[in-house]
């Protein structure tokens, strides 16, 4: 069996690396000619990614630190671990609601600053209680923007705490819809969600459509004294609009994971140091999930949980396998089949899937594919990445 080389750009949880057995995988932070890269938060945009790399695995959900477009052009799938850190982020989002509702951080800072002792301390504590009067969550309306793995868990948890919950996600999957409690109401538009919410929590990726999603116009629709929670991405929020809403009282509090100098300076902002997925359990879950999917791709060519390529999984036969990443153009499969037939090879099984401008094909044939045939397939206009995986190891 082939020995694969994996370059790590961050510390990856040991439990995940155990899914890459040492007899077949060399894993190191410095390695020449890697076949794949494992990364967490390292910014790869300025990195010279070796031509030998055929896959990148992100031990987490967000992939803004990876040059997706450039990798797609090379036919390199980028894997992530959606849902593996969902419980960790859900717990922090619920904690954010409680922090805002009960003024927990301000109250703690007040007590930490007390110098009195004895009866004087008791009196100082009692006198200050009115400064930190909060509100209870049951009966309040939470708007959840984004109903993926995390958003669904947050919505269900808030509902269980007695809150009314409105969700918005025009691209919710059937799988997530089944997981969502029937008690979660559906908003037809973002404006409708903002109009009815006492609190908003965001769980969306940072893409062109979500950049600046929370702006002055939408904040103006909120109930007075609302709470904003953001453990999604910093730039889905217009910070200037949020600061203005905090100053006017439209927003009671903003709890987020993305500190900036202007946010830190505001006394109604609780900014945390990107703690969303910072639990040992989440790090292990993410590492295990991405390691398993990376391993399946390297050894079998199967794709699962890629952010730029379609899901494509074909069980292994006692046959020789090749995989092709290509532009999604007509007659690609026909040209591949013609080259295989010309080499006297019979197709035992085939899977072709596409997403947007990219397509991916797995072909099992009844004999070894020669270097000459591989060169002919590679020369087809639109082929981005071609791999010869041979027969499965018994």
How does this structure look, described?
The chain has 394 residues and is an alpha/beta fold. The protein folds into 3 domains: 1-82 and 277-309, Rossmann fold (3-Layer(aba) Sandwich); 86-97 and 136-271, NAD(P)-binding Rossmann-like Domain (Rossmann fold); 310-389, Alpha-Beta Plaits. It contains 14 helices and 16 strands. The strands form 3 sheets. The protein has a 7-stranded parallel sheet, sandwiched between helices. Strands 2-1-3-4-5 form a 5-stranded parallel sheet. β10, α10 and β11 (251-256) form a beta-alpha-beta unit. It is elongated. The chain starts with a strand and ends with a strand. The model has no long low-confidence stretch (mean pLDDT 94).
| Backbone CA Rg | 26 Å
By DSSP (H or I, 4+ residues per run), the number of helices equals 14
Structural class by SSE content? alpha/beta
* CATH H-level superfamily of the largest domain: NAD(P)-binding Rossmann-like Domain
Overall shape: elongated
Low-confidence stretches: none
Q: What share of residues are in beta strands?
A: 15-25%
Name of the level-1 CATH class of the largest domain: Alpha Beta
What level of helicity do the residues show?
Answer: 25-40%
Order of helices and strands: EHEEEHEHHHEHEHEHEHEHEHEHEHEEHE
